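Hello, quick one for you while I still have it in my head. I'm working through a protein record and want to make sense of it properly. Would you mind checking whether the tokens look sensible for this chain? I owe you a coffee for this, so here goes:
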Amino acid sequence: MNLEMEHIVAAVIFAGVAVTTFIWALKKELGVFDLAILFAVEVILGTIFYAAYRYFFLGHL
């Protein structure tokens, strides 16, 4: 897989996590501080999912 395709996959994974987190936050009516914490969690989850994708589907990290 070429580098451009890996970037597209990474963007899709992070966008999926971001949209899901944003919808969940809207339903909970969270404040600004809570949204900042959720953003940090979103980045961590996106990184974990992307690393899992690279490990299981590409065979390397």
